[in-house]
Amino acid sequence: MLIRLSPLIVLPAVLIAGVVGYIAADRPAPAPTTITPATAAPISAGAASGQLPPGHPAIPGTSSPHSPHGGGAGAAPEPPSLDWTAPAAWQTQPNPSPMRLATYKVGDGAEMSVSRAGGGVDANVQRWVTQFEGSPKVDRTDKQVHGLKVTVVRIGGTFLGTGMGAAPSDKHEGWAMLAAIVDSTGSEYFFKVIGPADQVDGARAAFDGLVDSMAPHAAR
User: Fold this and answer.
1) What is the pTM of this model?
2) How far apart are CA 193 and CA 183, in angstroms?
3) How many Cα atoms within 13 Å fall on the side-chain side of residue 104?
4) Which residue has the higher pLDDT, 18 or 98?
């Protein structure tokens, strides 16, 4: 059966469709949505790496636990410039800090650390003095060893700590520090024995032997 639509019905429908199409075409397209990725907060240098204690001279580079000389992450290591021979009775220990080049157990309660840093002899000796309570006695000797300038220092009294994490209550009465600063090519070398005074003084002969064994690396 053929159905015929009246022109009166078709015409309004065509007009309505045209109006709707015009309005849709005239409306501006929606702006695209921009998604901005979140930006991470910058990491401070202090949070990203270990910091030196207040008053510590600048260190040009730290070492790997197995290196007997300087150098560290992000920087070329300093070339070796010093050789030494540790006493056979001293036991080599793991380095508790990347700032150390070597660690030795000296007796039951004393320890020797080897490090490399700048700042000069006087500034470092003064810093060590502040690690003891009050005004400790300082014995200082300057000498030449195989062409190297070596300063040997002994400080005794109540040891307050190195300032590198030691709690204020970690006082050690009757302790001593026996140290040698070696003026070598590049940064100075530091050899420090710290512990009860009787053990430090008992290791003096062995320490002096280590100092006398020092020689420029190129000479061997």
Assistant:
1) 0.64
2) 18
3) 21
4) 98
